Known about the structure:
Largest sheet: 5 strands, mixed
Mean pLDDT: 87
Low-confidence stretches: 243-255
CATH topology of the largest domain: Alpha-Beta Plaits
Number of helices: 14
Amino acid sequence: MARSIRIQxxxxxxxxxxxxxxxxxxxxxxxxxxxxxxxxxxACEMTGWRVHAWVLMGNHxxxxxxxxxxxxxxxxxxxxxxxxxxxxxxxxxxxRLFGDRYKAVVVEGEDQYHYQTLMDYIHLNPxxxxxxxxxxxxxxxxYAWSSIxxxxxxxxxxxxxxxxxxxxxxAFNLADTVAGRRxxxxxxxxxxxxEEIKSCGVPPQGEEVDARASHLRRGWYWGTQxxxxxxxxxxxxxxxxxxxxxxxxxxxxxxxxxxxxxALEWLVRGLKAGGLRAGSxxxxxxxxxxxxxxxxxxxxxxxVSQEWLAEKLAMKSAANVSxxxxxxxxxxxxxxxxxxxxxxxxxxDNTNS
Length: 353
């Protein structure tokens, strides 16, 4: 599998998450959690990282951190490898502790909205996981293994030096006082009681969203569209250093995002040229030559999946798309479509995407 490009820069913010191998637990008891925090503390001391929020769940963890130096990759490599070694020694095991490579979403941390929403998303994770039940009177303080009970609710002398609680409180216009810390907890408890459990702390998505944006559950950045464009340009510089040699390479997040933009543009133009309307595609057979020729173009010239094609072209399933593409006789099919679509397909095929 192709590795995702890490966008590193001085002062960058990230939402980092890693799961256990095969989604198995990485924390079996409180000693495991203490080992994690001790190791994280060492990583922060070596790298200068400032952690703004954290939560330890059963089989995964979340970190909201800032890297004063562009050293996310080096720091995470040390952190994950050290955690694995210590875990294996403690539990007399061997092999991988974590599954797929950790996810690191670049964050517009200087923007108040995106900072606040990520903070709440992390701190309300135990609510979504039903590990605490606010509607039964429990508080976020009843979950010990997050930066609320383990940091923000504590006075400065009792919290970890690497937790930037002052910045976190300031983002919500709160002072680092007894009253300010209490207000931080009460605000989260109110959200926990008033929102649906499965979406507690998850910001709503508008009808028009940038498909690249994380939305905290997918995507590769969390911030404004202008921030995303800046990160895209930085990512492009990194991508140019590596030549795409296979479709597997094309699967990493930035390359896939560029391909989807091209695919959407061609899809809109192709449907129009073929006399097809997006809203009534389900009324047209999946074997219609207009659909199949468009699917063939997008499959060959972009990096979208067959699941994507099945959804956008109303072709039932990825298996059906695959079957139709295998059966496609281009010379025969091209004779059955409007002239405008023929011209469009020729133009698109001669474009360097």
